[in-house]
């Protein structure tokens, strides 16, 4: 007979791990590091926003509390993205919704109501003040900010703001995730990015963990790769390497590739 004790699982005060919900990535990197800064960086249209939303929704669906700060879209656009990602339906095209899809959208909405995501957009409260208030009034497991370039009203990298967020995350043991853009390359998008492609080298230095996104077929040069995105763990993980997922831009999400 096996006797189960508290040592066999998380202790009463040990926080739950925060996973992305993407099996191959989680198998490669393990959980998002709590109290640390993780940066997700990709070239335009690589899917950084979709990856951040995927992480946020998975966290909430698995009993963690996520705060998702979308600085690129308004509240209505974020609501549509959340519904699309949850239902697997393109809510941006309401003219294509038949009764079955409408029912799925309704059920997705009810599901999200039962697991409210702490989310907000640029309207209203200044960004950093809103984040401070959120962390002061809620127990948060993962804070995601999309994207770091918009933390500053001047749309450039704000080292002071990033340092403050990192301090808040460390104090509250929150997994902090920021998305960032990589420079387009003259040689084409078919080449995998490197940390040198970040617009702001300071961000690479500040990041405790870093994932680069690469969409090899973005320019149509790798048709066999279809809608695949390579998630390249390059810094701060127990293991480095690449996990490949499918990007579904019409649903604002990323999902596992079928297992072979």
UniProtKB/TrEMBL annotation:
InterPro entries: AAA+_ATPase, DNA_helicase_DnaB-like_C, P-loop_NTPase. It holds the Pfam family DnaB_C. GO terms for molecular function: ATP binding; DNA helicase activity. Keywords: ATP-binding, Helicase, Hydrolase, Nucleotide-binding, Primosome. Residues 11-260 form the SF4 helicase domain. Gene3D superfamilies: P-loop containing nucleotide triphosphate hydrolases. GO terms for biological process: DNA replication, synthesis of primer. The keyword Hydrolase applies. One of its GO terms (cellular component) is primosome complex. This is DnaB helicase-like protein. It comes from Kitasatospora cineracea.
